[in-house]
């Protein structure tokens, strides 16, 4: 009886507990695409209990559910699927909504992502795993220069800090007018501010080489104003760098590259002893990168770690060492014996991690560290007392006789005694982002994060002297000081989808941001800037030659707080129509408040043709670097090495010159274009744009202490400081940038083991100067009007050029991007071999030299070599002067590569960039070749975008295991 009762009780208890037992059932499965590949990161959700998880790298997942529960699977770029669970393992196949996963973008939308061609604004998606390996370029900035249509970058020489850091720009604007994100979070800028060259002049952008390239999965470049969406710096666009998430596999790459320039490598002229040189193949670059991901926990967590090492050698370039009758028609360059790229060694590491914490909440973090040590040659110091070199740059005895230091000085082929100071830098970059994200039960997605970044830029002088320290040659290395920039950004973002997407639904997003920024300049050691006194009547130059150190007068620490609120709406009344709007309000503790807005729309005219357009306003407060940078440095002006003061906005010099306080830049952006898929595998996008900017912050021209038309108080102050010229940051110009971007992408699979790809990218652009905002105090300057400029180069109306923003500065600004840039890439793959080629066209760029200092006019003019044959003479003086205008005509460069998959784990890549050793035209008017090198770099070329180093060969080994 008892046994029967126990049996009945057990049966009833089992019936009661069955639902609970079923509820605790663990379900396993794998999610794949239609090719059988596991999909990582698929969202898996159980209804009605809202349990969620994501798939791991191979597509596997584990979750608990009851029988008959509905389980949904969703992933960007694939059709969502829901199934009713019955029993056993659950294997799911998702169908892609696009044939190319790299077309799915995250930037530009607060949603889960969107197919690139269905975005209301143009976005480039660049997969570094595809474009980064098949080139000799081993850094991110130079790689993007050849694959993104309106991204511009030029390597510089003789430009102090700009030799040591590579800053890129979008659509011809400044580097600090593009916002850079990593995984959607704001990246801090470098502490450096550009002072020379073309692109980057007067700006301070993000160093894209400040973290390992091997950590990057892809880069999304939003080519449209987005200040209202992402923050005030996004006038030209936004670059979102998406980090790798892969686990369970090592990815290791080693590379070796070098320039083989048989035309202009100075090694070929070494017997003349006119120039510094290295070897027949110079600029040798060695690289090693490694990436590995590890699973964390059993819910799809991961940590991905990358490390990059790079060792890059110097390059040395000049026209043939000879007199004016040589084949190139240029004189021997005695003021830049070491013209070329500097050397650099760097090590960088980065991690990216996500850890699900349960209850649909996720912790994420990523961060980087990077350390660079670089070395570049400054201008040559020559002992001969001619127009381009002065004896006061050399160490001397009390009687003024040269102290010859054999380890640093040498006798050149011209018979002169020379030395070439080194400018060295140590750059440290650190960043860390942490955050939590969650989807609440009522459908709100929220994200809370904090990002901190720090960039430290430290100068050193090597192989140089403080000439004012009479008789002292014991110190040849100097700590010149430097600058530092710290940024901390805290964000809270909320979003929710109301209604159904494509059926009248609205995606609503809100957010708040608080940003703290701090900029500081730290002084160098005393000997790096001091002007030593003497009783010998000698006037030797003070400070470390090459780059004088920062003095106590330069030392500064400044900070500000920026707070912002935004709201963002995406309305999809139908599948064919998308309308967006965003409003952002920001407050700067040092500039006040501002509001910006943006609207954009996309209309699906047909299944394969979309119209799109946008309109927005933008705002950018001057950076702390622009407000507070100051230094007395060596400048090349009118053919002379002179001491030049760059004064910050609060400097008494700035006030004496009548330069007003800096204020914000504003913009109006508009774009219109289309995306078209006329055939399978073929995509065409064309987008026109206009960016009107007011009060752009730029660097003024050089104000000369000998200019009697300047305020007497200003020239007296300059003379008392012992400097010949001064420059200032100012809201000098209004500009309009217009252009068209074209991208044509074609991919076709010819057979199961054979495919081809073609990619054409192009940009045609124009930069117009609408107005120059000359301060009233400088309107009577002797260079306030320029008949030559007025008659022959009408770039703007309303104002006349002056020293404040001279013709040279106008040309520098307009050379921020070439008039056109086109690139055609073709790849063919069969079995284990891939071959490819890229032809890139860099359009015309025009710059000017400093001109003859005896010519009384602001437009740079130089005397012709042979007046009797001059074809481009002017009406000035005796008719023997011509404009010192450098026309860098459009040129094609060709890159090729071959990729052999040796086995499943090893690939070998060989190739050449700039196969036909193409160089820019010389920085010279062909009728006045005696003035060659009279430019910003002091070399045969300016730092134009195509570069001047010539043919570069490379080999790489790639390991995956």
Question: Describe it for me?
Answer:
The protein is mainly beta and 961 residues long. A hairpin with a 5-residue loop joins strand 25 (422-439) and strand 26. The longest helix has 22 residues, at 2-23. Mean pLDDT is 85; it is low at 5-23, 98-102 and 782-800.
Brief write-up:
The protein is mainly β and 961 residues long. Helix content is 8%, strand content 45%.
List key phrases describing it:
961 residues, mainly beta, 22-stranded antiparallel beta barrel, five-stranded mixed sheet, 10 helices, 48 strands, 45% strand
Average predicted confidence as pLDDT? 85
Specify the structural class. mainly beta
Looking at the structure, what is the overall shape?
globular
Main sheet, how many strands, which sense, barrel?
A: 22 strands, antiparallel, barrel
Structural Rg:
31 Å
Topology of this protein?
Elements: H1 2-23, E1 26-32, E2 43-47, E3 52-54, E4 60-64, E5 70-74, E6 81-84, E7 92-93, E8 104-105, E9 114-115, E10 123-127, H2 128-131, H3 140-147, E11 151-152, E12 169-170, E13 178-182, E14 185-186, E15 216-222, H4 227-230, E16 237-243, E17 250-259, E18 282-296, E19 301-312, E20 343-358, E21 361-377, E22 381-382, E23 410-411, E24 417-419, E25 422-439, E26 445-462, E27 477-498, E28 505-522, H5 526-529, E29 556-574, E30 577-588, E31 592-606, E32 609-620, H6 624-628, E33 631-637, E34 640-647, H7 652-656, E35 665-679, E36 682-699, E37 703-704, H8 712-721, E38 725-751, E39 754-772, H9 787-792, H10 807-814, E40 820-830, E41 833-842, E42 845-848, E43 861-863, E44 881-883, E45 885-888, E46 891-901, E47 906-913, E48 952-960
Parallel strand pairs: 1-7, 13-16, 34-38
Antiparallel strand pairs: 1-4, 2-3, 2-5, 5-6, 8-9, 10-15, 11-12, 13-14, 15-16, 17-18, 17-48, 18-19, 19-20, 20-21, 21-25, 22-24, 23-24, 25-26, 26-27, 27-28, 28-29, 29-30, 30-31, 31-32, 32-35, 33-34, 35-36, 36-38, 37-38, 38-39, 39-40, 40-41, 41-46, 42-45, 43-44, 46-47, 47-48
